[in-house]
Every structure is written in structure tokens, then in C-alpha cells.
Amino acid sequence: MRHHHSRGLGLTSSAVRHRMVDELRSLGIVDERVLATIGRIARHEFVEEALSSEAYRNRSLPIGHAQTISQPYIVALMTQAALAGAARLTRVLEVGTGSGYQTAVLAEHAETVFTVERLRPLTESARLRLQRLGYRNVHFGYADGMQGWPPHAPYDAIVVTAAATVTPPGLADQLALGGRLVIPVGPSGAQELRLIERTASGLRERVLASVTFVPLLAGRA
Ligand code: SAH
To answer: Which residue from 13, 34, 119, 122 lies 20 to 30 Å from 103 (Cα-Cα)?
Structure first.
């Protein structure tokens, strides 16, 4: 797909990417490493070709199966919260692979990313896409990720990209000490993005933003 980079009127060019990065900075993203990653990754590779001219706008887009690729601002916010100033993460779990875009952003800042998706066609297309883009440090799971992925725990960070009604209790148990869980929680229309950190004295929780995510669904489809 690399030959598509200069397609059309340059709607996927580095200029439009930099405009998006400037917009994320103006919205309050301060981690320059995350901004650099977002500026580098070709988001148009993660949506169907008809939507590539929309790929560098700060909006979510449909990826089929009633799912969406998250808004770049939210991807940046979640990644920034997961990193929390750390130079690099060792093991990260993502719940909700979707297009694999957030996965790729995380993979730029972690030794290994484990990502779980409950819809088989999405996990398969994301696997092929990230392989094609050269990612070697991502492991894909086709499963219900609501209870995490215990065999690979503990994680430095867990990023959940679909909204839970309550924080699934098993997830925070899979955090390493100092590890951080970033998860949207709440009913449709009133979700908040929560950051839950595992400290020596227990779990510490705060709210990062009001958000809109598709719901986290139990079981495989
Ligand atoms: N990070 C993705 C966001 C995709 S939307 C991206 O940037 O493209 C959320 C994804 O979570 C969807 O693909 C949906 O199928 C998946 N999902 C929903 N419930 C799930 C569950 N219980 N376990 C794993 N994945 C789930």
C-alpha cells in the first residue's frame, strides 16, 4: 500500500499529518514522543481506501462490523496516560484490537504488546496489516478480553478501547506494581475515561475525560 501515500491531492501527506499533530497538541496532549508517533504512523492504512481523505482528521471512523477506529486525540490521551512519562513500557495489554491503530501506537512505546479482539475478521485483518507495516512485537488474541489475558500478566499498562459498564474486576489484578489501566467506563452518553494505577497501597483512580466509545461486549461474536 506504500504506493498509495501520494494518492490524489496529497490528503495523506506529511503536511496533513503535521496539522493533526498540531491539533492534538492544542487539545492538551503534551507527551512529544506520543505526538511524534502519531505524526509518523500512516492512519490511512487503517481505514478503507474510500475513507483515506478523512484519516488525518481528529475523528473516529467506521471499520466495519459496527466498530470504529478511535479518534486520534483519544488514542494520544490513552497512550500518554499509559506511558506516564516512562521511557518505555515492557508489556502492554490492549483490549479491543479493532483496526490495530492504537495497537501500532502502543507498539512504538513498548517492548511487547498483547492485543485481544472478540471479532475474528477484525483480529485477522489487524494482524495482516501490522505484519505488512513491519510490527514484530505484537501478539494477537482472538478472545473475549473483558477479563484480560492472564497468562501474559503482569502488564505495565492495560488499555481498553471499548466502554465497560463497570471496570471489570479481573483487569487491575493483571497490573504490575506501578502499572496503569486506562479504560472508558459508563453507559452510552455518559462515559468517562478512567486511569487506575496500582500502587503499593492499593488502587488509585482518577477521571481523565468524558468520552464516547462503542460498548465492550462479553463473549466472542
Ligand atoms: N483500538 C481500536 C478501537 C476499536 S473499537 C482501533 O483503534 O481501531 C473497540 C473494539 O473492541 C472493537 O473492535 C470491538 O470488537 C472490540 N471489543 C468489544 N468487546 C470486546 C471484548 N469483550 N474483548 C475484546 N474485544 C472487544
So the answer is: 13
Reading the block at residue 170, the C-alpha cell is: 479481573
CA 194-200-204 angle, 5° bins = 20
Q: What pTM does this model have? A: 0.94
Domain membership flag for residue 66: yes
Distance from residue 2's CA to the centre of ligand 1 (Å): 26
**Distance in Å, CA 140 to ligand 1 centroid:** 12
| Predicted local confidence at residue 76, as pLDDT | 98
Q: What is the pLDDT of residues 108-153, one digit of tens each?
A: 999 999 999 999 999 999 999 999 999 999 999 999 999 999 999 9
Q: Which atom of ligand 1 is nearest to the CA of 46?
A: 8
Question: The domain spanning residue 154 has which CATH number?
Answer: 3.40.50.150
Instruction: Report the Cα 78 to chain-centroid distance in Å.
Output: 7
